[in-house]
Write a structure and sequence with these properties.
- This protein is of the alpha/beta class.
- The chain has two domains: 54 residues, Orthogonal Bundle (DNA polymerase, domain 1), CATH 1.10.150.530; 278 residues, Alpha-Beta Barrel (TIM Barrel), CATH 3.20.20.
- A ten-stranded mixed beta sheet has the order 1-2-3-4-7-8-9-10-11-12.
- It starts with a helix and ends with a helix.
- Bound molecules: S-adenosyl-L-homocysteine and iron/sulfur cluster.
- The site of S-adenosyl-L-homocysteine has 15 residues, from strand 8 and strand 10.
Length: 338
């Protein structure tokens, strides 16, 4: 809840409005119970316990990469549903990659989350609570957030917008929009809607193919919004916000990694302020996909550079702990279903 909403609720409980700010601050400092709100009267705390609950992300599993200290969490919520989240340590601070949905409807063929189907949307508080659990567990402050965990953020638009406003609130966690990235598979009307909000967040677009033929094979959403339409929306986004778009491109051996693909991609991205992130595909069991060879990726980058496009190979953090989202939840569901 926003401070204004809390004030409204507290007013109905017969409390002065300044209490709203206190409660808001407590909630965003990561308390798990109303009893921890020590500057609030016992009577009010009892009323809050009766009428409200604080969303909590409970740690079910935690894996720590032995290569780079990346931590991967499996969290559960009140209804027992689970999501994954990853905490990465960079020289400039901690970045959390959080989930926005339990599962995903989009069905991308290379993605473990997509293969597991959709369960439900997360609320804004469930997104916040992933950050707070990680901060508490490590005694740290998170400085950057990426919405790149399980789920498609633009398919849970209202809750995600609410989360963005809350996480950047100056009385709350105060993580500025410039420190937040949102990744989408390309739900075109929502990209326009987001662009019109003129937030200063970084938009990452999961492109993964230079044309409709290949993209529709791996990403079903492309049958609804093709590459031309998607790139037009991306141009609109960067024109409207002045922000560079980051394109994600998972390199899949023999599928989308040829020199011809690189040339086609280069031609199509011309005129967009863009950066291309090449990610060696994480081979998820059962998909039959394998990551491209290093030489292939180097050649791909050279061709893109010829078109004036900067591209880098994304450092794959936590590769020993299945840090590609969706894999840990799937493993855990398989264990429970025997
Ligand atoms: N639904 C959003 C955000 C979550 S997925 C989206 O698709 O953008 C986060 C990123 O991981 C996306 O770029 C997605 O394409 C990528 N991804 C999914 N499975 C992957 C895999 N097996 N290997 C590499 N990247 C993968
Ligand atoms: Fe959903 Fe993103 Fe996975 Fe596609 S890649 S299935 S959109 S989470």
């Amino acid at each position: 809840m926003f401070p204004e909403e809390l004030a409204e609720m507290l007013k109905d409980m017969g409390e002065p409005s300044y209490r709203a700010k206190q409660v808001f601050k407590w909630l965003h400092s990561g308390v798990n119970s109303f009893d921890e709100m020590t500057n609030i009267s016992k009577a009010l705390r009892e009323k809050l316990v009766e009428n409200c609950y604080i969303s909590k992300a409970t740690i079910e599993k935690k894996l720590i990469s032995s290569y780079d200290d990346t931590e991967k969490y499996l969290f559960s919520f009140e209804d027992g549903e689970t999501v994954e989240s990853v905490l990465m340590k960079y020289h400039h601070g901690y970045t959390a990659c959080i989930s926005t949905q339990v599962g995903c409807k989009m069905g991308c063929t290379f993605c473990a989350t997509g293969q597991g189907g959709f369960c439900r949307n997360l609320t804004a508080s469930e997104m916040l609570s992933q950050l707070q659990s990680e901060q508490k567990d490590n005694g740290i402050r998170i400085s950057n957030v990426v919405l790149m965990g399980m789920g498609e953020p633009l398919d849970n638009f209202d809750n995600v917008m609410r989360f963005l406003k809350l996480v950047s609130h100056d009385e709350g966690m105060n993580i500025g929009m410039r420190h937040i990235s949102l990744s989408t598979c390309g739900i075109v009307p929502r990209i326009y809607e987001l662009a019109d909000k003129r937030l200063q967040l970084t938009l990452s677009v999961s492109l993964h193919a230079p044309n409709d033929e290949i993209r529709s094979r791996t990403m079903p959403i492309n049958r609804k919004y093709g590459v031309d339409e998607l790139l037009k929306a991306c141009r609109y986004y960067s024109d409207n916000t002045g922000r560079r778009i980051s394109f994600e491109y998972a390199m899949i051996d023999g599928v989308n990694d040829s020199d011809a693909c690189a040339r086609e991609l280069g031609g199509r991205l011309k005129g967009i302020i863009a950066h291309v992130n090449l990610i060696p595909v994480n081979a998820v069991g059962g998909t039959g996909y394998h990551k491209s060879k290093k030489e292939r990726m180097d050649s791909f980058i050279k061709i893109l550079e010829g078109f004036g496009i900067t591209a880098t190979i994304r450092r794959t953090l936590g590769s020993d702990i299945n840090a590609s989202c969706g894999q840990l939840r799937r493993q855990s569901l398989n264990e429970t279903s025997g």
